[in-house]
Amino acid sequence: MALVNDVKREINAKIVYVGPRGAGKSTALRYIYGKLKAEYRSELKSTPLGEHQLLFFDFTYPQSVRSGGYAVRFHLYTIHGESDSPLPWKMLLKGADGMVFMADSDPQRLEENIASSAQLCEALAHYGKKPGDIPVSFQGNKRDLPHPLPLARLVSETFPELEASAIGVTADKGEGVLEGLQRVVRAVLHNLGQGELPEEVGGEERPQDEGTVAGQPMVVDQDFDAAGLRVAPAGEPVMLNSGVLSVPLRLLDSGGNCMAEFKLGITITN
Length: 270
Prior knowledge:
Blueprint: E1 3-5, E2 10-18, H1 25-35, E3 45-49, E4 52-60, E5 71-80, H2 87-92, E6 98-104, H3 110-125, E7 136-141, H4 151-158, E8 167-168, H5 177-191, H6 197-202, E9 230-233, E10 238-239, E11 244-252, E12 258-267
């Protein structure tokens, strides 16, 4: 549950990266930390949590998003070096505003993915919740394996209700990681009553890409190989009040996996 700090005029929201051991949760957090601009993020810290290690940092949404000048600070957590004990996850999920379920695309680890999803549901049930009660971003990691488990199968065996929003990622290369974060960030902001933030905050909707979080330029530029990439429609175009036609698009790799979602703004003139 998000906490409001009236002294600092901040809303603090908690996002937890969950999933089976070795699925890439810590790798994803470290990649995100390395891409965020230093002025927006805190120090990346690791602290003992019993026999486990808690990895965490926070970052601030760069503009006020609530009447009265409140900003939102997102706290990202995960556990690495974890055992099969459900207790640390149950503790960490207390008060979570959003989650990223990082599944392992290795076919040999399907049962571990299933067990982890069941453990997550059990931990949430302890607080009277289920995955549908808070935003969840499903990410199938290690899509660069020679023969990864099909993403649809991975989702259907763990969280079939998330099939429409599931994305494939490769955390050690950063592919899809920022997009996955952006999805859960925007959902959390929406639940906090912020709605479509880029349009509300900036006066008009801004184009989005892999270099943004919730539409804001919070990450450093990165180079990538454009070979085999293609752009596909991601929804119906919307005419904004500013006279800009907003066209939702997806950037797909050669295998059809979504690498990023963005919106193209086209100014209509007479």
